[in-house]
Amino acid sequence: MTIDPAYFEAILAELIEENDLACQGVLSISELVFTGTVPTLSVTLRDDPPRLLVNLDFVREHCRREEHVKALLLHEFLHVLLNHTGEYDVASRAVNLALDAVINHIIHRSCGEDYSEIFRLYYREATGWQGLLVPPR
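^ that's the sequence the OP posted. Answer follows.
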């Protein structure tokens, strides 16, 4: 997907208009930062309020359409709304996997396969516990 910061912000604005969870989530974020310091997208745990960190190279490589970008944004906003950013100073890999699995399934159930497809594609070769990150068909 060809995407730059302005297009990403336009998708974010559209998501806020159409999704109450995204609206609530973005109000809890202090800053949107485009960076290569994270491998994917992330909300910071130690900042109050949290910052949303976005690796646009990841988005370009793995997102095929706007719904995929929106799913990633919702995923990060749900970490904030479910108080994962307030509850943990540092999340272990096991805790993060469990939280991510729950969030991916929430997105699948509330937004459908157009959104959750990104998780199915990204984790298509997942084995073991990582298989929990793939929503059902």
